[in-house]
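Usage example:
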Amino acid sequence: MAVVKADNRGLRLASRYAVLILVAIIFIFPLLFMVMSSLKPSSQLLLDTKSLRAFLPVGELSLQNYTDAFVRAPIAVFVLNSVLITGVTVLLCLFVCSLAAFAFVFVDWSGKAVIFSILLATLIIPYETIFIPLLLMVSQLPWVGLEGFELGWLNTYRVQIAPFIADALSIFLFVQFFKDLPKELIEASRVEGASWWTIYRRVVMPLSGPVIATAAILKFLFMYNQYLWPLMVVQEEAIRPVMVGLGYFTDQLNVPWGEVMAYLTVITVPVLAFYLSLQRVFISSVASTGVKG
Amino acid sequence: MADVKLKGIKKSYGPVDVIKGVDIDVNDGEFVVFVGPSGCGKSTLLRMIAGLEDITGGTLEIGTRVVNEVPASERGIAMVFQSYAIFPHMTVRENIAFGLTIAKTPKAEKDEKVMEAARILQMENLLDRRPSQLSGGQRQRVAIGRAITRNPEVFLFDEPLSNLDAALRLDMRMEIGKLHKSLGATMIYVTHDQVEAMTLADKIVVLKDGYVQQMGAPMDLYHRPNNLFVAGFIGAPSMNFLDVDIVSQDGTSAKVNSPVVAEFAAPVWRDGVGQTPKATLGIRPQDLRPVAEGGILEGTVTLAERLGTETIVDIRLSHGHRVLASLGEDRVFEPGEHIRLDFDHEKAHLFAPATDQEKQAAQSAA
Ligand SMILES: Nc1ncnc2c1ncn2[C@@H]1O[C@H](COP(=O)(O)OP(=O)(O)OP(=O)(O)O)[C@@H](O)[C@H]1O
Ligand SMILES: [Mg+2]
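Running the assembly step on the lines above writes:
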């Protein structure tokens, strides 16, 4: 009897793993194709796409594409720019949006409900529709920097960061998560003498690992994939992000596919690194609740 | 000095009045227990004292200060919640020290106070655990530990033991009693549990429908309940209620009878009794005793529950009435047995006539 049961469990486990492996393969194939193709000369690359060879390290393999790609475009600059812009935006976004959500959930103030519904309504407005007015706006914005007063934010890092710090989706994610935190934890902190800031920093945020990771990933992908906006507001090569950099390879008749794949492989590395680092956060933040049970 | 004075306290949620004008004096060092049926506003009242709810009307004084507008953190209170509300991401030590940490207490002093609290609550060996590694009783100890480290003048407890099992509840109840004696702080305690109220309280406040029904020492409430609700609410099993007619009365007593109650003289002291020829008679199950002859009630045993120290006997009277009697263990009662009951007539309670609904509400709330 017990043996049969054990067998059943083994079978169930096996089939579950089979499904997971299949899904993993489906997800990994594009990456595999990208990496393998980046190692092949363009002529072979296109021929290989007709068969499974596209996913295999076969034929003439070299790092030539990488060398060529680095010559064609200042890849390191682009990647650094993107990492900088994305990193700063993600950090600021997590801070600003969680604070906003904190105010929406824990603090009582009049007009809260109305403002929150307006905020939610903005969820349905795609960024693309506001880019033109936004462009007109940022081109007129004042700034006091090291060189003194200036007008217009075009061709800067900040124009790529500021408009994306706060967004309704991130606030909404935090709000939903905060609402599920036990109310008594906040009340107990208040009675113990904690200020709002202390409650935010010492109680709410340490318990918010999962939502921080979620919001960070969404924001990271959104920012790292920015294309249209930097194309509109940035002309200088030195502050260009990676997606705009792709243009260096595609604005010609014969697209150097090998180099494109090499470029894509390089710019994928920060994304993977980011995911892997967050995975640890995810796992360590599976917090048990502090209330009964 | 940390007495707590509630004067005409009111609370409304929008159009709904939850607390409708409550006056309570809690003296310095007193242990006051709020009891009442579910939804009567006990927690709301406690949370207003804590500063977690706005006060709609009236004034609240702690010590000599009016604290209506004073934030929770500055009221000099500590609160223990039903759900413990300890921080899952902190160790027991960090939890207990929380209030001191945010008050930037020097480390040496903080450690000392944490150890002191841990010693009082016997959990020195748990200090480095996380809440998820603790039992329910231990978690509640941590919550109490967090409350005592700041030496608050007033402790507030909202049903702190209701998530614990019976044995643990008894333990913790005694510990809270001891804690009160050793700290000498003012404590306000909300509970559903009769026994907790009777054993812990210097003063019980019975709340219902947003009003104070009665407040006083536990035994006063037990022996001299103001009204039918308090009479039914305090004491377990609940007081028996029977409708009676008043046959005759002088200033201090009235002869009463009914189809099921043989005529006897009962003391009259409550307002509203004797103004009509009807009244409601209350008899505590503990006051009843079996008699061989006479007696004022007679009926048939339908159920006898032997609890070890007493037997709760359910007795069917004529005309569909029933009473509960708490009788000694020296005699075994069998269902179907005919029984006659009497009691010390001085212990009869006469109330103004009450509807069946009122009687039920009073009995089922307990
Ligand atoms: N935020 C709120 N909004 C509206 N009504 C509320 C709110 N909080 C409590 N109430 C109402 O106030 C009344 C009193 O609630 P309260 O929690 O004080 O009862 P309680 O006596 O503590 O009950 P229990 O014994 O079940 O804990 C209830 O009828 C409840 O529905
Ligand atoms: Mg309550």
